[in-house]
Amino acid sequence: MSLDLGLLLVCMLGIGFLAQWLAWRVRLPAILFLLLAGILLGPVGGVLQPDKLLGPLLFPVVSLAVSLILFEGSLTLRFSELPGIGKVVRGLVSYGAVVAVLLLGVAAHYLAGLSWEVAWLFGALTCVTGPTVIAPMLRTVRPNARIANILRWEGIVIDPLGALFAVLVFEAVVSHHEGRTLGVFLGVVACGTGMGLLAAWLLAFLLRRQMIPDYLQNYGALVAVLLAFSLSNAMAHESGLLAVTVMGIALGNMRGIHIDDILDFKENLTTLLVSSLFILLAARLTWPLPHGVLWSGVAIFLVAQIVVRPVTAIIATVGSSLSWRERALIAWIAPRGIVAAAVSALFALKLDALGIRGAEYLVPLVFILIIGTVVLQSATARPLALWLKVSEPDPHGVLIYGSDAAARAMALALHEAGFRVVVADENWEGIRQARMDGLVTFYGYPASSYAERHLDLTGIGRLLAMSPNRERNALACVYYRQEFGRTKVYRLQHENTQSSSDRAQLGGHLLAPVLFDAQMTHEHLLERLAEGWRIKSTRLTATFDWPHFIEQYGSATVLLFGVEEKGALRVASVKRELEPRPGWLVIALVPPEPAAAS
After folding, report:
1. Which of residues 349, 369, 388 is at a domain's end?
2. Residue 341 and residue 322 share a domain
3. 20 to 30 A Cα–Cα from 76, which one of 6, 271, 288, 311?
4. Torsion of CA 439, 442, 443, 449, to 10 degrees
């Protein structure tokens, strides 16, 4: 029996990995494939039976997993960023979200027959989008920068705020059902809030004074979260989820502590938990669904798509500078994600244990809404964006990793040629200089989890890895192959790369095509720029073609980029020698003094 249990758990992990990989390949939210895998394994195939598999461990496992998911999501909320996100985003995550809760609650009550308390809880759960579902969709849809920023920031901010709101509504429902007074409810809220703040302060205290070694910080944070959840529940029934949510928000907004490593660890752990948890939760669905649930869920989904989201979008965008076309696309895109699925399943388990009527309908209704919004919007958002003429053209922009003189020179040349350029680096001095040059910048490593949430890649389709760090260049190239494709990432080689022995060479799978030519290294490029070489942009014609350009500026000229007549960017590399034609804009590195014509 233990062998069967172990085999089932390993197979579930493997299927979760395959679902995540498939989502990456087709650029759709992973939650869709995880839920479908769980439905096929559980109610359809009957292979996975979570209640029988885990028995009495099911509820604690789900509870602890959801607590970690909520903590990880709430870590990303930065109060310092709220003033800069714009009026539309603030409207969507504040009064727009309240309107969505009310409308979804009314729909759930009248269409699915849920009691008012369960209907309000459904509304609170399903008003939330999230970065894990928005980001893959935006990569496929490619709307213009204003729409992309609004939808991306909405997902980032409403994820933790919506989780906190849903937990508060759940506490109110449970208090009302158990006949608790308002004072008891406020006591539960105070206990959860106090425990969360205390846990965040204690963990921050230990981290600031380096009382926890680096290799134990992730472990310590994990223990702290689970302890806060369990102790809060022990002190005040059902206050644990509020405690971990408040703990994450508080810890994420404290100054003087470095939580990037903790956040990276929590994101990796959350990927594992989400992959396993959603398969388990979907496998618990009964098939066929309870009478009327399927059609009620479809009706609620249509109301959410056609009525609720447009109304909230209209309210939030009143007085903004957005065009009606931009508002229309925002009104169409609102996929539900991780918070709705994970928290609804846990709430359903708790409500069912309390005997609250309609609790068994909560999960299938939420799952129908998730699957419906993800499938419909993934299939229709790109054609709609094209029809509304609010989509970005093919991504010809360039992400440059590095901010020294060489990288900034390339960035300025491409920027002046009309391309969107983003300069990314961990070197603050270089980033500061790039900003003074008028370039768009990102302060941080472009292949980090922080960049995944905050780096705006709208219109970007290539990477030029030009930092002084050879290894980090290679990692950035490997990372962005998934995003841009193998032929759209390039690296500037280094002197030590050419002279090093085979023992020190990076593996071929870590290498990207070499920029420019075989002799052009990072050190060589810096030397030439210091000697007065300059980057020259010239439009070729039938009378002044590339041979004439070489004749005028000398045979030492190095071709860097070519821009076709229709605006497509060509990057010169060792593997791809360019042959500029009349009508092209050529960008080349030329000597300080033009060579005399022969």
Report:
1. 388
2. yes
3. 311
4. -170
